[in-house]
Amino acid sequence: MDMSELTQSSAPSRFIGGQLLGSSQLVLGVILAVLCIAISIAAPQFYSEANIIAILRQCALVLIVASGMTMLIITAEVDLSVGASLAFVGCIGMAVLNSTHSLTLGLLAALAFSGAVGLFNGLVVTRLKVNSLIATIGTMMMLQGGVYLFTREAVQNHHRLASFTDLGAGYIGAIPLPVVIAALIFALAAATLRFTTLGRYLYAVGANERAVRLSGVRSERLKLFAFVVTGLCVGVAGMILSSLMNAGQPTAGRGFELTVIAAVILGGTSLLGGRGSLLGTLLGVLVLKVIDNGIIILGWNQDLQMVVPGIVIILATYLDIVRNRANVG
Amino acid sequence: MSVDFLHPGETVAIDKSVPALEMRGIGKRFPGVVALDNVDLTLEPGKIHALMGENGAGKSTLIKIMAGVYGKDAGTVRLRGREADIKSPRDSLKEGIKVVFQEIALIAEFSVAENIFLEGYPTGKGGSIDWKKIRADAAALFKRIGFNVDPAARTGSLPVSQQQMVEIARALAHEARVVVMDEPTSSLTPNEVSLLFTVIRRLAALGIAVLYVSHKLDEVFEIADTVTVLRDGRHVSTRPIGEHTNDTLIQDMIGRRIENLFPRKRGAPGSKVALSVEGLSTAKKLKDVSFEAHAGEVLGFFGLMGAGRTELAKAIVGYDPITSGTIAVDGSRLLPHDTHTGVRLGIGLLTEDRKSEGLMGELPVYQNASLASLSAFARMGFVDKASERKAVQDYVDRFRIRTPSLFQQVKNLSGGNQQKVLISRWLMRGLKVIVVDEPTRGIDVGAKSEIFALIDRLAGEGLAVVMMTSEMPELLGLADRIAVICEGRLTAIMPRDKATQENILNAAIG
Fold first, then answer.
1. Nearest alpha-carbon partner for B211 in B340, B41, B348
2. A74, A272, B93, B316: which has the fewest C-beta neighbours closer than 10 Å?
């Protein structure tokens, strides 16, 4: 029985090391290391500074949204509308920028829209008691259609604001700005989950919502909070994406929700709620993006960018089951 | 399979001189645990044999070996004098052993008759199923056990008690010589229990050996001829029931004597009203319930299954909506459907359903204990983990919660220790009124007295304890006043010294 203290993968444990070693993150860390070593043997340019920066840049968008999504999945809910919302946010942000020439107003509009989408999802789930999988598929369809009602083609950059271009392409020192933003959001979310009462309640509500409600905690508000945070993260990511593309693309973000959820699940967060960590999510994002990068560097067929991560998700989950079984025995 | 023997009134020729089932030196290991060690059990035809023991004593492992769910690692099984090799549930049925598990294993969508003949439908001409014969045979089986169930009824629409009868009828259809009943009364009303006992006695009269697995003392005294007690996977005793008293049975089960199951240390209750409920009604169950609970008293609510105990508990803590009435905690009004305010005013529920309403099974002990009082350990929104854990450790020590560490997942603790964690959750928060719903459900005899002592202590510290229970001894042993509900109405409320089993039961029947 003493063993389970080491293997408990739920919530914060005493040592960061203990948490690392004790959960699916160990499996994931090994997978990441093997991948990096294998790719660099086959293609030494993998370890160049330029390539590492490129990988981090590609991780940024996914990590931003995955930070919110991790919180949401820990509360045992999920949001499938983030991809559709990402495209819509970019179009709206760009349109507001074009008419106001103010980066602040553009960002605020994007955050207001994506936050409202999150709030809508949250209200449908907590008030109308619609299952979040279904509710957010509904939202996704509404947004995918709605964006075409808003604009049939890409919203082009007519404002030429340099600060907007920096959002996606700028640097702080040697580090791309999107990576810095992602790191900040990640750190904030991770600290919230690990150290605050709010974070503890998020785990609790995912582990047993009724128990939380009977303990006098307003569980609906916690879920609502997680939905809104996820929405806000989409707002930030959507603006960075439109900056990178220099346009608001209504077709952007297709399948983005699956990449985000895959990274979170790969990182060991349970879809049943109550279990998971942002450290795991970070590793999940890195694994997926290193695979992407490796396939390009090795000159493989790009369609494998979908196939290989699919295999990795099944394999990593299976290895986790095997590891748990070994620990029980 | 032959179903020809199924004529009403026909008796099965059973040789009563040979044991129906003889298990010798049974051993079973699971990784890291010895579940059974050299256990013997002999079942005589026509006798009712009780198997008792606390959770983890090895009762279920033993019956799962009989049922062919688990293989055994050591020992022999003889059926009617012949050595038998039971490798699968199918073998077990073929050898004439029928185990009725707590989780009923019937197909809910099928008719009763279809379920009875699941393993082999009688066929007519051309291999088509003879539905008429199935219904008639099923009806004949029910007649033999003296119970009336419509063979054409959809099984899932029947109450658990009748589904058990279907299982028993299946046993007869298989010509079972040994019928095992696993905790059969855990979800039955008293009426249903007495019907079940009639049927079980009937099985014995047919010459079948019955193994009755239970931890309820009164039931075992009522129905068993012989009792075998297991403890920690070992055989402790096998004796005729006449040689046992309550005390000797408990002693065998827990390995020590319990001096007094209901130690009373608290003084007389105060007169301050901590909870006042007036005219409370809910949409489904409760009708016009009014009562007051005083600081320092245990107010026991008794009611039969379905009387509305749990509904009342959930309504007065503000969990469920109400249609009319008022609830006041310490003078302040509590609006329904608002546990947040409820807890702030100082009323909380110790649920009967620990798994789905109390525990966060995957989370560690300390997080389960501090759930309701987390904000007390927060500085600017951050949890001060050191002081939180120190506070929890304090309760673990004081209540002797047996856990390897504060970081153990709470699902791995025993029922009694889980209950103590949940009581700690409320004590850490500080309440004025605690509503406890079936506080000892699923808890071992040994741990029960500790829970009783804790409830006594809660009242002693000045809380008003509102206790919902269906266990008469618990009610009489703990309560200062006794309230009885029947079909959602309060039918009696009386001081403990005026209460007798008879007047309580009369009020409960309505």
1. B41
2. A272
Q: Given the DSSP bridges, would you call strands B324-329 and B481-486 parallel, antiparallel or unpaired?
A: unpaired
Domain definitions of chain B by residue range: 44-68+87-254, 259-346+431-510, 355-430
List of chain A residues whose C-beta atoms are within 8 Å of the C-beta of residue B389: none
SS3 B36: strand
Each residue's pLDDT tens digit, B245-254? 888 888 888 8
**Amino acid at the residue B92:** S
* Gap between the Cα atoms of B53 and B39, Å rounded: 13
- CA A82/CA A74 separation, integer angstroms: 17
CA B99, CA A287: separation in Å to the nearest integer?
Answer: 50
pLDDT digits (tens, 9 = 90+) for A187-232: 999 999 999 999 999 999 999 999 999 999 999 999 999 999 999 9
Q: What is the pLDDT of residue B103?
A: 79
pLDDT at B190: 77
d(CA A79, CA B288): 44
pLDDT in tens, A249-273: 999 988 899 999 999 988 988 888 8
In this prediction the pTM is: 0.80
CA distance B420 to B399: 7
The residue of chain B nearest to residue A203, with distances taken between CA atoms, is B363
Residue boundaries of the structural domains of chain A: 59-284
Cβ contacts of residue B218 below 8 Å, gap of 6+? none
Quote the tokens at residue A128. Answer: 């109308």
Residues 6+ apart with CB under 8 A from B265: B453, B456, B457, B460
pLDDT of residue A19: 42
Q: What is the pLDDT of residue B24?
A: 94
Q: Which of B360, B374, B432 to probe by mutation at the A interface, max A CB count within 10 Å?
A: B360
In B162-272, where do the E strands start and end?
178-182, 209-213, 226-231, 234-240
Q: Assess contact for A79 and A70: CB atoms under 8 A.
A: no
- The domain defined by B44-68+87-254 carries CATH number 2.130.10.10: no
Amino acid letter, B189: T
Token pair for residue B295? 């600081």
Which one of A2, A10, A214 has the shortest CB-CB distance to B357? Answer: A214
Yes or no, beta carbons of B372 and A329 under 8 Å apart: no
Residue of B114, B268, B71, B101 whose CA lies nearest to B168: B101
Of B32, B342, B362, the CB nearest to A207: B362
Q: Looking at per-residue confidence, does A93 or B5 come out higher?
A: A93
B44-68+87-254 and B259-346+431-510 have identical folds = yes
